[in-house]
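As practice, study what follows.
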Amino acid sequence: MTEPNTTEPNTTEPNEQPLLEIDGLTVEFGTDDGTVHAVSDLSLTVHGGEIVAVVGESGSGKSVTAMSVLGLVREPPARTLAGSVRFRGRELRSLSPRELRGIRGGPVGMIFQDPMTTLNPVMTIGAQIAEAVRLHQPEAGKREAMRRTRELLALVGVPDPAARVRQYPHEFSGGMRQRAMIAMAIANDPALIIADEPTTALDVTIQAQVLGLLRTAQAETGAATILITHDLGVVAELADRVVVMYAGRIVETATVFDLFAQPRHPYTLGLLASLPRLDVPTEELRQIPGNPPDMANPPDGCAFHPRCPLAREICRTERPVLADIGDGRQSACHFAGELDGRSGAQVFAGTRAEVPE
């Protein structure tokens, strides 16, 4: 596992207004099998220049949260029941579709998980990036927009950008398509970049290159970044702060160093125990028993209790609130104080991860 980022995290004055404020967001989906509680009472802030990683298993609500910021969750079948999303103090949920289009790709850039399904297959890469430039910079003519497009492609490491602007998405490799998506996301110097699983389906070498590009993008724009991922190696490499989600709720928040050094939620302990460690190469990998809950019929109490080795009666009947536990950290566990000094290997001692031969 990559060593966590130990550089001084981005800090802001306590009275400085957050760049992004999500307060009490609740999103449900109507399905044939019932109502799926995708995100429940989620609150999150992001300050200028910081990288906040949002982690959790598939189905934990990470991507729905990110899509909700930009109004990309289709209603119906989704229903946003409650919550506020404010960017630079402006309520985004009250904006018209036209006003939201002025936010997307401008002050807020988006890097999607699968660029092949996001990019328009019948438009050249150059035309798509140039269109994003002209949409938010109407004073730029076609020639200036294309010049900026070539500049952006060069910045993200696409070779021979003068020729590549005339190619279509299917003529780019997966890694090159992701580079084009990053170029489009930073085309208008955003204040916030949302990256949804940006390294999914890429091989390890290309993943490393894309992570380097995300650093370049932030350095180029000075933007804050929300990094949606299930890869804790990526989190250790890039993040300042980590938000851990489970079953549509935040269960722990901490700086990246504190989270890796001493998790304060059993779910986080389980995630870390399932990863190989370079500093303890002989340590046996553990697995979290069971499966994530059915969000159309979530369990009572703490949603993690059916899989938690530490669960007690209160965990089965009373849902823990996300509470401050000191040092700027939060945990949604009735027994967070008892986890100090305990490792995932200890807590999940009765499990063993299946390792492919």
